[in-house]
Amino acid sequence: MAVSIIGAGVVGLAIAKVLSDRHDGDLIVFEKHDGFGQETSSRNSEVIHAGIYYPPNTLKSRLCLEGNPLLYQLCKAAGIKYQNCGKVIISTNEEEKKEIENIYQNCQAIGVPGISLLTEAEVKKLEPNVFALTGIMSATTGIIDSHGLMKYYYQQAQANGTLFAFNHEVTGISKQSGGYIIETSNGEKILAEQVINAAGLGSDQVAGLAGFDVKKLHYNLYPCKGDYFSIPGAKGKIHHLVYPVPHKKGYGLGVHATLDLTGQIRLGPDAHYGENLNYEVDPAKRTEFYHAARTYFPWLKEEMLSPDTSGIRPKLQGPDDGFRDFVIKEESANGYPGFINLIGIESPGLTASMAIAQLVERLVMTRSD
Ligand SMILES: Cc1cc2nc3c(=O)[nH]c(=O)nc-3n(C[C@H](O)[C@H](O)[C@H](O)COP(=O)(O)OP(=O)(O)OC[C@H]3O[C@@H](n4cnc5c(N)ncnc54)[C@H](O)[C@@H]3O)c2cc1C
């Protein structure tokens, strides 16, 4: 089995670890940057999600529910830093109170563990510095050192003999008998029996390189940026992650407050679509963030906020579309046997990384049988 993975983000790395752990054969990971995890995987909230918001019977729901305990087990076994801090979702007006009920019902329907409804007094007891009318506690939510996780996947895969071709952008893919010829920016050509497209924001382009009709298959991505502002000096104000009810159209989860492993509070990400996005955070957005967070942090002052990082979601859902699931698919049915596309791996891709890798392993092994 000669398998090529395109992309060394958390998903490509997890797949490399799982495949190299359990199977023989040549495994190469092509990555256009000079190291792993330099795009979306190092520009996110580092939250281990519980699987609360996704519709039942979707890959996002299933892989998040499977991935959450897998990630905790891995952190414990491998010494990757994490905190099972929990999160509260809060309502601040009558309309949001109804939404809290809906979210709770969805959790019951999907079977999300560790979920309970909270009264105003119960939220106050958990989070004295948060204004809320009602809430939901999610006990299985946590935070993780995402770089530590990627380093672990990378080192394990490397120790198992996986070859990492950094500074190798995949620029061409052509179907041959017995597999695919992968061409890179360095002019190299390699034959792979199976190809795994885990190229994140570039995954629709990579599918296009191989000849997939990206528009017709609805594989085209709509990049959607999320900015963060931090609140230096507010350490200790909250003990759980604090989320408002999510954006009605499903672009993002609303400007929420996350903690990092040092206890620093970050607000965000917000959500705005665009082409040619960069990672700069416009300081002028401070007022917008302040007003969003002031509804639940009554002690907040605008001057406490400072621009932080940003990330770009590889969304299949355009601005006017409804929910779109992950595409994780062996493409024989579209005429590409042994080609596995992973497209639209936005949140909860970090949480689900192990579960995604195990699903891809099953797809690879079905072809190899
Ligand atoms: C703002 C934000 C917040 C998020 N928060 C969370 C969270 O709290 N919890 C959670 O579970 N998930 C979260 N996510 C989602 C999570 O970050 C992603 O699902 C995950 O990082 C996707 O990993 P990936 O490996 O698919 O993509 P990436 O990390 O983007 O990796 C893809 C790699 O492919 C490479 N590549 C692209 N094209 C080519 C090519 N032609 N040749 C070679 N290499 C190529 C890129 O350089 C890149 O390194 C968040 C995402 C965003 C944007």
Give the averaged pLDDT, no decimals: 96
**Bound chemical compounds:** flavin-adenine dinucleotide
CATH class of the largest domain: Alpha Beta
Secondary-structure class: alpha+beta
Order of strands, widest sheet? 9-2-1-13-21-20
CATH topology category name of the largest domain: FAD/NAD(P)-binding domain
Number of helices: 8
Outline: elongated
Order of helices and strands: EHEEHEEHEHEEHEEEEEHEEEEEHEEEH
Structure, described:
The chain has eight helices and 21 strands. The protein has a six-stranded mixed β-sheet. Strands 14, 16, 17, 18 and 19 form a five-stranded antiparallel β-sheet that branches. Helix content is 28%, strand content 25%. The chain folds into two domains: 2-44 and 147-220 and 323-368, FAD/NAD(P)-binding domain (3-Layer(bba) Sandwich); 87-139 and 222-315, D-Amino Acid Oxidase, Chain A, domain 2, CATH 3.30.9.10. With 369 residues, it is of the alpha+beta class. The mean pLDDT is 96. The longest helix has 20 residues, at 59-78. Bound molecules: flavin-adenine dinucleotide (FAD). Flavin-adenine dinucleotide binds at residues 6-12, 30-33, 38-41, 43-47, 49, 169-170, 198-202, 206, 226, 269, 311-313, 345-351.
